[in-house]
């Protein structure tokens, strides 16, 4: 009985470049993608291993292999995985170290290994045995709930690593290296961030994804140069030395003296950009408050330290994800208050739960929806699960009591003025004085004037607004050229939203909290269109501030006009960047 509880006890306790020459056929070869995070970096490539394929259902022991031999092979593989993860945890830090330590402990857990050996004795191959045994353990942890349920995915990670070891192929996830490298992958999932060490991974390049993909968001949050949708980069060999320009979206194999000079210049400029004085302004003194997007108290503390003038987007999903049940009001109050306390006397804009689409919740959303991006998500979950939103608003109001932060609250996925009016009434009932809505659906941009009759502000979520306006999934690499906020059609929707904020006698603020605000060149255009505030990852604040300070408001308005009247997103970006020489000077 004691052994059957080993893995549970383990989890409970854990809670408390050298140059490689390029092939002659590759030297000088360039790859074009979409730059999503600026920086000029030279380094060796390491490829992200392919995902481990599930062993065939019913796969049996190979002919001539005894169950004893297969069981010994399994034990050896499990021990090898444990050793590798333990070694990696020693050089890791923070959350990454905790994940690696917990995963290492469970890799050779007696209960897991014993369950797999039993299946091998019954004739299963070691790969199939560990696959099924881990599935059973993960289900058990999931049913326990709380911290244990959160660790179920770690068991499945161990499973993939052991299968890879048995097959003699690279383990899934971020590759390990003693020296810094440029990570090349098809795309990255949010879970990959736990073991991504920015001290070792110096740039990201993917063959898939788009400007708003997980990889792009990860790169901007970590301040890593990144290029996405670079078709063909997956064919590069490990160790190939490349130059990555995260602003231009280019990759060059075996860079020369010119690229070395650019990389050195970037080091100098990035050091100069490390400080933001806490006031966003144009050259003529026009103020543009620069806020930060955060996902919890830890993010908020970092944003405050970086000089953010407030929070333009508090993603409240961090309280709800990886849970089977709705968090209590008390749990939510504690989580939100940590963010509010980081910004006394400053604005904190709270986005209510944006569940659905790529953020499903078992107690709130329907995973069987045929098209979840156009389904019951964000504010719409109140249609099918009334009460969750009202309890969240009550928690936000309670968390705001006694703090000095100016708490605003907004709903995602608002499509009509009627919905905005209903949300405002819920805010009023909860005692929240400043309601607003996200403009992500084109209909909201087109009817901004009517919507603003009922709420006090709007904030443009350019990620989804672009996706919906262009009918292009933001995760799909082949559609990356469509899925950019530089599209003139998207900029027209921004303009219409700003115009609507001045109609009908009201003059209410329009902000941008989508990833577009973190692009220094696009930030100038947005201000020229009349956007009042910009919210971004804390790492982007200094770069955006530096570029905004190089132009006057009339100049920004002229650049906005150029972008609006361009024939394509590519032309819009090129025309604006040509008028902003500071971008090249700073390597942005």
UniProtKB/TrEMBL annotation:
Mg(2+) binds at residues 440, 464. It comes from the Bacteria. GO terms for cellular component: cytoplasm. The active site is at residues 214, 513. Phosphoenolpyruvate binds at residues 315, 351, 463-464, 474. Gene3D superfamilies: Phosphoenolpyruvate-binding domains (3.20.20.60), Phosphohistidine domain (3.50.30.10), PtsI, HPr-binding domain (1.10.274.10). Keywords: Cytoplasm, Kinase, Magnesium, Metal-binding, Phosphotransferase system, Pyruvate, Sugar transport, Transferase, Transport. Residues 181-249 form the PEP-utilising enzyme mobile domain. GO terms for molecular function: kinase activity; metal ion binding; phosphoenolpyruvate-protein phosphotransferase activity. Pfam families: PEP-utilisers_N, PEP-utilizers, PEP-utilizers_C. It catalyses: L-histidyl-[protein] + phosphoenolpyruvate = N(pros)-phospho-L-histidyl-[protein] + pyruvate. It is found in: Cytoplasm. GO terms for biological process: phosphoenolpyruvate-dependent sugar phosphotransferase system. Its cofactor is Mg(2+). The keyword Ribonucleoprotein does not apply. SUPFAM superfamilies: Enzyme I of the PEP:sugar phosphotransferase system HPr-binding (sub)domain, Phosphoenolpyruvate/pyruvate domain, Phosphohistidine domain. PROSITE patterns: PEP_ENZYMES_2 (PS00742). Its EC number is 2.7.3.9. Residues 33-151 form the Phosphotransferase system enzyme I N-terminal domain. Residues 281-551 form the PEP-utilising enzyme C-terminal domain. General (non sugar-specific) component of the phosphoenolpyruvate-dependent sugar phosphotransferase system (sugar PTS). This major carbohydrate active-transport system catalyzes the phosphorylation of incoming sugar substrates concomitantly with their translocation across the cell membrane. Enzyme I transfers the phosphoryl group from phosphoenolpyruvate (PEP) to the phosphoryl carrier protein (HPr). NCBIfam families: PTS_I_fam (TIGR01417). Belongs to the PEP-utilizing enzyme family. This is Phosphoenolpyruvate-protein phosphotransferase. The gene is ptsP.
């Amino acid at each position: 009985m004691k052994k059957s509880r080993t893995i549970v006890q383990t989890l409970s306790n854990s809670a408390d470049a050298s140059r490689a020459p390029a092939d002659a056929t590759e030297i000088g070869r360039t790859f074009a993608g979409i730059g999503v995070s600026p920086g000029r970096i030279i380094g060796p490539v390491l490829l992200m291993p392919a995902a481990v394929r599930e062993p065939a259902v019913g796969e049996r022991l190979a002919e001539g292999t005894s169950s004893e031999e297969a069981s010994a092979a399994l034990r050896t593989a499990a021990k090898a995985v444990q050793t590798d993860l333990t070694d990696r945890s020693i050089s890791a830090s923070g959350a990454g170290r905790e994940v690696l330590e917990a995963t290492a402990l469970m890799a050779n857990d007696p209960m897991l290994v014993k369950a797999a050996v039993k299946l091998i004795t019954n004739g299963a191959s070691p790969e199939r045995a560990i696959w099924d045994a881990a599935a059973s353990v993960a289900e058990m942890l999931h049913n326990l709930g709380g911290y244990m349920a959160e660790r179920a995915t770690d068991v499945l990670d161990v499973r993939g690593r052991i299968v890879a070891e048995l097959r003699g192929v690279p383990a899934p996830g971020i590759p390990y290296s003693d020296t810094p490298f440029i990570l090349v992958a098809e795309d990255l999932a949010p879970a990959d961030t736990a073991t991504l060490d920015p001290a070792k991974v110096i740039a990201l390049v993917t063959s898939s994804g788009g400007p708003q993909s997980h990889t792009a968001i990860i790169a901007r949050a970590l301040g890593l140069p990144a290029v996405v949708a670079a078709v063909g980069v997956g064919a590069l060999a490990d160790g190939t030395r490349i130059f990555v320009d995260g602003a231009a979206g280019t990759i060059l194999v075996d860079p020369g003296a010119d690229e070395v000079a650019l990389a050195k210049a970037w080091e100098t400029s990035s050091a100069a950009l490390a400080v933001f004085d806490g006031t966003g302004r144009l050259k003529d003194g026009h103020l543009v408050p620069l806020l930060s997007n955060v996902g919890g108290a830890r993010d908020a503390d970092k944003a405050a330290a970086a000089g953010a003038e407030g929070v333009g987007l508090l993603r409240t999903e961090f309280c709800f994800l990886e849970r089977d049940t709705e968090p209590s009001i008390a749990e939510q109050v504690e989580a939100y208050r940590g963010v509010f306390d980081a910004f006394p006397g400053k604005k904190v804009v709270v986005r209510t739960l944006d569940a659905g689409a790529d953020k499903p919740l078992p107690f709130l959303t329907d995973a069987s929806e045929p098209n979840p991006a156009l389904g019951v998500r964000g504010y719409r979950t109140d249609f099918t699960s009334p009460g969750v939103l009202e309890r969240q608003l009550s928690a936000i109001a309670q968390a705001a009591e006694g703090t000095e932060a100016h708490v605003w609250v907004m709903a995602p996925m608002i499509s009509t003025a009627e919905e905005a009016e209903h949300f405002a009434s819920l805010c009023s009932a909860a005692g929240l004085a400043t309601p607003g809505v996200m403009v992500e659906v084109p209909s909201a941009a087109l009817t901004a004037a009517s919507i603003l009759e009922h709420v006090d502000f709007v904030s443009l979520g350019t990620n989804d607004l672009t996706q919906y306006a262009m009918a292009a999934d933001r995760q799909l690499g082949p559609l990356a050229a469509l899925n950019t906020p530089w599209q003139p059609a998207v900029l027209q929707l921004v303009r219409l939203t700003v115009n609507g904020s001045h109609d009908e006698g009201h003059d209410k603020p329009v902000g941008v909290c989508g990833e577009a605000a973190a692009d220094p060149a696009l930030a100038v255009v947005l201000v020229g269109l009349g956007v009042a505030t910009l919210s971004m990852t804390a790492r982007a604040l200094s770069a955006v501030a530096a570029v905004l300070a190089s132009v006057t408001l009339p100049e920004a308005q002229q650049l906005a006009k150029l972008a609006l009247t361009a024939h394509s997103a590519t032309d819009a970006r090129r025309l604006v960047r040509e008028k902003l020489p500071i971008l090249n000077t700073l390597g942005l």
